[in-house]
Write a structure and sequence with these properties.
Blueprint (H helix, E strand, L loop, with lengths): L1 E7 L7 H9 L4 E4 L8 E5 L2 E5 L12 E4 L4 E2 L1 H13 L8 E4 L3 E2 L2 H13 L12 H10 L5 H4 L2 H21 L8 H15 L3 E2 L1 H10 L3 E5 L23 H8 L8 E7 L2 E3 L12 H9 L12 E3 L1 E2 H11 L3 E5 L10 E8 L4 E2 L6 H6 L1 E7 L17 H14 L3 E5 L7 E3 L7
Helix pairs in contact: 3-4, 6-7
Bound molecules: inosinic acid.
The site of inosinic acid has 21 residues, from helix 4.
């Protein structure tokens, strides 16, 4: 029995999908705590690749109960599509998917506003996924959001929608000089989700706290990553939720003492999609090589990911703000054949050296990484199943990461398949 948070430690796309799927085999419950369909969790099982955007990765194990917490923003059409796709693949979620009645809904105007804001001022563009995430969280904070519970009461839903659509139409015509929303069509569309969603709706805070009392094994699944966190990340180039470990508590309605351990997932190098500073970014052939070998293209948008060297300043930061107990280092195999391997150990801007991540774009943009070189390896590591089976230089690379970030490496992923995984020691086990 244990409660484990699995958190992204860089700019998202660290391989949380694979790690959560791997750990879910021994879990009773997997609960997603923030974000929405901006996430894309890829899981490879045999010759089948599944990409999940909203549903927790645990859905792929029939014995796992899956939860979508209050911190998630849900596009009902996307959710129903994903449930239907899984049903067609023989995975029935009836009775084992629970959705918080407090979760907020993504509305058509959120997606429209997401697109309009990005197009209107290219200089202030974030490079969002265009899924309406930011505007949905804006309404949540402004206390005008529509929640799952509102779907169940048609009178409340109609009244709230009317008010919101009126306001968004004003915004769309006056600021963005664009199309108007069809109020009746939206109301009709959302009234229909009521019956579809009803069987899944639950007070998930009560359910989870009971499950914790009963000693169940629970994984709390984050989306995106620490540097995309609205508070801890490279603001304003962030998403609008809290992917960091603290978000698991507020996003699911559990207290801090319930959490037994935090696993930080991080790639053996660094990637980022969207705009914003990225100190160790590689623009030349090597960046291209990481992209090709690591298939670094967004699972949600298909955009090529920016690639760069491993950044231990970020690792240290992530260990600190998430309270990481152990790392799950992913895609170590992608580095095979690269020599020397550079690891960023600090930043400098000509006046001072930064050992702690400054998390401020204009400072980061002025900084140059300070690298240490480590020797690479050429052996294929995809068949290694224990730490000792890794080449000496791969072990040296991981040990260096442990030393410089201050947290142990508990899991190493050496390939996309579930079994291409090394579990090193107890802190990483659920
Ligand atoms: P939004 O979450 O769509 O508002 O996008 C805000 C920023 O977060 C953009 O830079 C996106 O590229 C990035 N982002 C959002 N979701 C993910 C993800 O799952 N992986 C990586 N980056 C993401």
């Amino acid at each position: 029995m244990s409660v484990t948070v699995v958190v992204g430690s860089q700019w998202g796309d660290e391989g949380k999908g694979k790690i959560v799927h791997f750990l879910s085999e021994k879990a009773d419950i997997v609960a997603r705590y923030q974000g929405g369909a901006n996430a894309g969790h890829t899981v490879v099982v045999g010759d089948r690749t599944t990409v999940l955007h909203l549903l927790p990765v645990g859905v792929l194990w029939p014995h796992v109960t899956c939860i979508i917490g209050a911190g998630v923003v849900i596009d009902p059409a996307d959710l129903m599509d994903e449930i239907e796709q899984l049903r067609q693949a023989g995975i029935d979620l009836t009775g084992r998917l629970l959705i918080s009645h407090q979760a907020h809904l993504i509305m058509p105007y959120h997606k429209l506003l997401d697109r309009m804001t990005e197009e209107k001022s290219p200089r202030e563009k974030i490079g969002t996924t265009g899924r309406g995430i930011g505007p949905a969280y804006v309404d949540k904070a402004a206390r005008t959001g529509i929640r799952i519970v509102d779907l169940l009461n048609h009178n409340v839903l109609r009244a709230k929608l009317r008010r919101n659509i009126e306001e968004k139409n004003l915004l769309l015509s006056r600021i963005y000089e664009t199309e108007q929303l069809d109020e009746d069509q939206i109301i009709q569309e959302y009234l229909e989700f009521d019956e579809q969603i009803d069987p899944y709706v639950k007070d998930v805070s009560v359910y989870l706290n009971d499950a914790i009392q009963e000693g169940k094994t629970i994984l709390l699944e984050g989306a995106q990553g620490t540097l995309l966190d609205v508070d801890a990340g490279t603001y304003p180039f962030v998403t609008s939720s809290n992917p960091t470990a603290g978000g698991a508590l507020t996003g699911l309605g559990i207290g801090p003492r319930c959490v037994d351990r935090v696993i930080g997932v991080m790639k053996a190098y660094t990637t980022r999609v969207g705009l914003g500073p990225f100190p160790t970014e590689l623009s030349g052939e090597l960046g291209e090589l990481f992209r090709e070998v690591g298939t670094e293209f967004g699972a949600t948008t298909g955009r090529p990911r920016r690639c760069g060297w491993f950044d231990a300043v970020i690792g240290r930061y992530s260990a600190r703000v998430n309270g990481v107990d152990a790392w799950a280092v992913t895609k170590l195999d992608v580095l095979t054949g690269v020599h020397p391997l550079k690891v960023c150990v600090a930043y400098e801007d000509g006046r001072r050296t930064y050992r702690h991540f400054p998390a401020v774009p204009h400072i980061l943009e002025a900084c140059q990484p300070v690298y240490e070189d480590l020797p690479g390896w050429t052996e294929n590591i995809q068949n290694a199943r224990t730490f000792d089976e890794l080449p000496a230089n791969a072990k040296g690379y991981l040990r260096f990461i442990e030393e410089i970030t201050g947290a142990p490496v508990g899991i190493v992923s050496v390939g996309p398949d579930r079994d291409m995984t090394i579990v090193r020691d107890a802190p990483a086990q659920p």
